[in-house]
Each structure stands twice: as structure tokens, then as C-alpha cells.
Design a protein that fits this description.
Layout lengths: L2 E8 L2 E6 L13 E4 L4 E3 L7 E6 L6 H17 L3 E7 L3 H11 L5 E4 L5 H5 L3 E2 L4 E2 L2 E5 L5 E6 L9 H11 L1
Parallel strand pairs: 5-6, 6-7
Antiparallel strand pairs: 1-2, 2-8, 3-4, 3-7, 5-10, 8-9, 10-11
Length: 171
């Protein structure tokens, strides 16, 4: 599997990403994730809706918490044609606990803990840590990537305005 270096740091230290670079115009790779109720969910099941895929290392960290809460707040303004997913390798039980404690109900959390197939398919798996790098992908109704943000320093937040603008243009 392809490895990429020099793109992302964690507290200033470079990390190696596993998987291909995803670009605008690519078909969104499919992967099977685990929902909070332990059922399998495929990325392809969201075809037909604009999908914001927010990728975080762990919901139990401050920046990931902030990112997920922010997208949860923005979700209502986007309407029912847009689905927002937050994907991490946190266990589904931990994701459900976090959502309950944080009052997050408009974002669907999905876990890549089983085989990190999402991380590998989207090129965001951090090799040595088995965590996902911070990234955001916007996918149109036809399953085509229309916006990509791979955050160069994992401890920094994404450009929310750019993500929301990309999604709103697809509605």
C-alpha cells in the first residue's frame, strides 16, 4: 500500500500516511465502517445526498471535540439534503458515549476501528499510530469528491467556511 510523508505533522513531528491521495474529481472510495449500534455502514450508502466527511483522530481530544461540535451546529442550516459524518478509530461505544455527553445529534459518528479500511482508502491512516489524520472531504450526490482538506498539522482545525461553502454549492 502506498505511503506518503511530508504532508502532515502531529505537534510538529512528521507522520507517514498510508493510502492514496484523494483529489477533487475522484470517485469517493467506498469503505465499510461501524455505526454506534454496531451495524455496518458503507460510504456508498450516502450516494444521492451531499456528504461532508469529517475525519478526526479521536473524539476525546480537544480539537476533534471542537470540530465535531462545530459541524453539528452547522448541520441544521444545511438541510436534509446534506449528511455530515465524523469518522475516527474510536470504538463505537466511545463514540456513542461522547455524542450523548456532548449533545451531538445532527452528525453521524462512524468507527473505522475494525480494519481501518476507510483510513487506507482515503489516504488518512497514520501508519505508526493507527489513528486517522485530520481531514474533510465533501462528496456530491453522484459520489464524486468536490472538496478536500488534509490538515497539515493535526492539532489545527479545518477551514470550516471553505467546507460549508463547498457543500452549499452542491445543494
Amino acid at each position: 500500500m502506498e505511503e506518503r510523508t511530508g504532508l502532515v505533522t502531529l505537534q510538529g513531528n512528521p507522520v507517514t500516511l498510508v493510502g492514496p491521495e484523494i483529489k477533487i474529481g475522484d470517485a469517493a472510495p467506498d469503505a465499510t465502517l461501524t455505526a454506534n449500534d454496531m451495524t455496518p455502514v458503507r460510504i456508498s450508502s450516502f450516494k444521492g445526498r451531499v456528504t461532508i466527511i469529517s475525519v478526526v483522530p479521536s473524539l476525546d481530544t480537544p480539537v476533534c471535540d471542537t470540530q465535531t461540535r462545530r459541524f453539528n451546529q452547522e448541520a441544521a442550516a444545511l438541510g436534509d439534503d446534506v449528511v455530515i459524518l465524523t469518522i475516527s478509530v474510536d470504538l463505537p461505544f466511545a463514540q456513542a458515549r461522547w455524542c450523548g455527553a456532548a449533545g451531538v445529534d445532527a452528525v453521524q459518528t462512524l468507527s473505522d476501528h475494525r480494519d481501518v479500511s476507510f483510513g487506507k482508502a482515503y489516504g488518512v491512516l497514520i501508519k505508526d499510530l493507527r489513528l486517522l489524520a485530520r481531514a474533510v472531504f465533501v462528496v456530491d450526490r453522484d459520489g464524486i469528491i468536490q472538496h478536500v482538506q488534509l490538515i497539515s498539522e493535526i492539532a489545527e482545525e479545518p477551514d470550516y467556511a471553505a467546507v460549508l461553502d463547498a457543500a452549499e454549492k452542491l445543494i
